[in-house]
Amino acid sequence: xxxRRLYYDDSVTRSFEARVAERLVHSGRxxxxxxxxxxxxxxxxxxxxxxxxxxxxxxxxxxxxxDLAVVHVLAGEISVEQVxxxxxxxxxxxxxxxxxxxxxxxxxxxxxxxxMTVGFHLGEDSLTIDLDTPAISLETLDQVENLANQIVFExxxxxxxxxxxxxxxxxxxxxxxxxxxxxxxxxxxxxxxxFDQTACGGTHVALTGAVGLIxxxxxxxxxxxxRVEFRCGQRALLDYRQRNRVTNQLASDLTTAVSELDQAVGxxxxxxxxxxxxxxxxxxxxxxxxxxxxxxxxxxxxxLQVVQAVFENRxxxxxxxxxxxxxxxxxxxxxxxxxxxKSQLVFAxxxxxxxxxxxxxxxxxxxxxxxxxxxxxxxxxxxxVPASTSQIEQxxxxxxxxxxxxx
Length: 407
Ligand SMILES: [Zn+2]
Description:
Layout: E1 4-5, E2 15-26, E3 29-34, E4 36-37, E5 51-53, E6 56-63, E7 70-74, E8 82-87, H1 89-113, E9 117-122, E10 127-131, H2 138-153, E11 158-163, H3 165-170, H4 180-185, E12 187-192, E13 196-199, E14 214-222, E15 225-232, H5 233-253, H6 261-296, E16 299-301, E17 304-312, H7 316-326, E18 332-339, E19 344-349, H8 357-368, E20 373-376, E21 379-383, H9 389-406
Parallel strand pairs: 1-4, 17-18
Antiparallel strand pairs: 2-3, 2-8, 3-7, 5-6, 5-8, 6-7, 9-10, 10-15, 11-12, 12-13, 14-15, 16-17, 18-19, 19-21, 20-21
Helix pairs in contact: 1-2, 6-7, 8-9
Bound molecules: zinc ion.
Zinc ion is lined by residues 99, 103, 190, 200, 202, 204.
């Protein structure tokens, strides 16, 4: 029993009839072996075809290793002997475009860059070729793309034939590794007219024009190899459309031309750096005034000058700056808090005092129900839990009371 694989000689038929040769259960699902099929089973880097048999969804198609029968796994039972099958054509055509595109691209990498394909992956989300070289320059990559697309524009024929082992040895075949089932069926060579010959059991378009645009969109180094991500045909169009929308939107936002986006972003980055540093120095100057105003409201307690202040959602870096300024002169303690989703407490004391701010912080954090915080005797910081202004005020008051008690 060997399923006749009709897709070898005809990759455009999408509906066909067949006879059930065997019924089985695979991973808890009903499955059929047919006497003949156009369904491509997963293998050789190409995912399987999907579709329906008598209206029941085909969820997986694979080659059974022991007898090489093609197994169609179904979403439900089929009890009749004669079935009508339909292949999900948009999916199949997409895979044919990319599989043929991959053959063209792999040969173009050899001809232009002497880079051999050592692996490839055709998937729903990712389409990649692995090359045996760690790096290819952008200029070389452009030449590879140009050659690949020239082969598309010339609309060359793509043909498959079975050759003898002797003839196979004489051919300039790119990939010599064949899927297992081809070992019994003979050696299948796929030729892209006058450009490439490779051993392959997959499905391909009949003319290179049907591949459409071939575009490399990304290249990453993987050790001594590199991975090339590419798009063909419909997926290249979708990718172009999306990138076009994004760049047009960015150009409109930055009121510039798409070709000048990089300079515009560069200017934006420089402006941002300048603005950030100017903002920082302004903040530092403002903090001095703010600290002076707060110092006037300092409360005396047991010989300490205690400054207490609560803010809404204030940046913790600013709180630290303010605290340092407040305790610059002797005898001061700063108890600062910021209310919000991630409340902050910053406690500091002048160098001449011996109070432990870490102890004070722990006491305040207890009141907020947090244990996140720490620091040094002269400076401590913590918080991170949601807290309202009145909760923070309450926590600071308890610390201040503890100072009075210690006196
Ligand atoms: Zn192929």
